Amino acid sequence: QVQLVESGGGLVQPGGSLRLSCAVSGFTFSGYAMKWVRRAPGKGVEWVSTINSGGDITTYAGSMKGRFTISRDNAENTLYLQMNSLKPDDTGVYYCEDPYGRRGQGTQVTVSS
Asked: Distance between alpha carbon 61 and the CA centroid of its chain, in Å?
């Protein structure tokens, strides 16, 4: 059974940082690219970042470039998203997503003073 479990969200002030994690089980994590997506309040799902299976190729949406860093630990079957210089517009529910479009329950990120 495939499981993706996101964690690490919370309330942070503008300019702050958070590190999200996604624990994956039920498939060969190391063999697949993974991505982070988010859903802002009242909006659709937005792609955030993708990392290849080996972890050496990453891509980011324009507004996240330079502030967010995606990484993975294939030995631990875990995907990460380091988020720095957070802005109120980064508020939303963040999901990790596998190549088949499966996601976990998400983790809430709220950026507010």
From this structure: 12
